[in-house]
Amino acid sequence: MTHTAVLIPGDGIGPEVAAAVKAVFAAAEAPVRFIERQAGVAAIEAGSDSVLPEDTIETIKEHKLAIKGPCTTPIGRGFSSVNVGLRKKLNLWAAVRPVVSLPGVESRYKDVDLIIVRENTEGLYSGVENQVTEDVIISMKVATRQACRRVALGTFRFANRLGGRKVSVFHKANIMKMTDGLFLDQCRAVHERDYPNIVYEEVIVDAGSMRLVQDPTQFDIILCENLYGDIMSDLCAGLVGGLGVTPGANHGDDIAVFEAVHGSAPDIAGQDKANPLALLMSGILMLEHLELERQDTAAGKVARQIKQAYRAALTEGEKTRDIGGELGTKAFAQAVIDRLKG
Fold this sequence. Notes:
This protein is of the alpha/beta class. Helix content is 43%, strand content 21%. The protein contains 11 helices and 12 strands. The protein has helices at residues 14-28, 41-45, 54-63, 82-90, 145-161, 179-194, 205-214, 226-240, 277-294, 297-315, 329-341; strands spanning 3-8, 32-36, 65-68, 94-100, 113-119, 123-133, 136-142, 167-171, 200-204, 221-224, 247-251, 256-260. The two termini are 25 Å apart.
């Protein structure tokens, strides 16, 4: 069985790390065929009038599977985020970010094994902003019963599939009693009605942030609304070495888009300095998704082989400069490939 996935190389270092992933997948004989489409600045440079061309969206809808490199988003000006656009157009309502300690990657903590699940469609990221007067701008936080229940149900189902992992809901319902209150109500209802076997706790987000940096091993799966999930995802990435070693996935009802969550790093683009590990790990999430959702055991086997190969490379000091090594992008990909063959 061969699956078709849309590959969006992205901007800056994106094409380099995407090429590395393609090389590793080819060497591992992964059951995936890539179709390339553009988004971000690369789409504009290719002649599109949009950073998110309709052809890219329609191709993802057709194949229901995609993997994306980093796309540039200006701060405070210019065009809107490609990531946000993809989530809205494809109704990708849950972002999943595993955060795991890696051998050979130095950090303050050991044995971290967390998963951040982030509601992806509403909250303050709904983008409902209004200028009331010249000096006053209001941003509205949106919460709907449907979206809150959907992400809660998806998270508990996910936790159950993983053998009953604990779910911690981060919130600020002590202040935002209606929006975060609705989020908590739906999480409680799903837990009590459908998954009472799952260990469950509610944690105020600021206190949870403190507890995370004190001892991240006390958490397992952390479920957040949109803004908190965005912040917690990056905070937790810092526990294990940064965004260069953390993968990402966005799930909808029947579409999944996997992505490197780091930036496009235009300052090192084209210099063979980028770390392809985050995108490679996202590719592994894609293979595991194929195993779980499409019952493709071959995809799962390849995922485990690639994971074993890159962990062996890291253990032996074969790593890129950003995590203390000397290898370039292509050399790291080759180090993984060599261990697949050996």
